[in-house]
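Session log. Operator J.P. requested a structure for one protein chain; no other inputs attached. Running the standard single-chain path with token output.
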Amino acid sequence: MRKNKKFNHLGRTSAHRKAMLSNMANSLIFHKRITTTLAKAKALRLYVEPLITKSKNDTTHSRRLVFSLLKSKAAVSELFREIALKVGERPGGYTRILKTGNRQGDNAEMCIIELVDFNENMLKAKDAKKPARRSRRGGKKKATVATTTTVDNTASEVKEPAAKKAAEAKTSEPKAAAKKVVKKESKPEEGKEEKK
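Structure written below.
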């Protein structure tokens, strides 16, 4: 009887199941993605994610714990050197399961299980799709152009930063608005000097 045993036994004895999950975890660490059945992938996810979490803390004790499950020095060194560096910021969810349909012979549900941070295509698509953050009520925010100008007191010439000149070359409206502001500010000063 099952009696509240929560994990999938996969139709194998415990020794067979542990050896199979260890071999699948080694393959996932070396190749970064493997194709398997959905039931095995879900069991593998429960097996390999705690190992990846242990690999973030690179100590002798955590290496020995991981080695006791993987039984491969090469897989342990790959996990602690390469994978732990990439997933260092991620707080969990290191694997992704993508369903691929049913197998021809026995109609078993097949899938691909992969390490999330090693799928370059999905990472590029995610970065390209990411829109600029906007506030909830505000519409599209216009790019603000720095409109600071300095007035030289001796020659009364307007000096503009090079960045502003490049931005104003694209659009003529900000330039005209900046000139109007400068003229309005400079006229009263000239008038005061004449009265004195």
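Operator note: The chain has seven helices and five strands.
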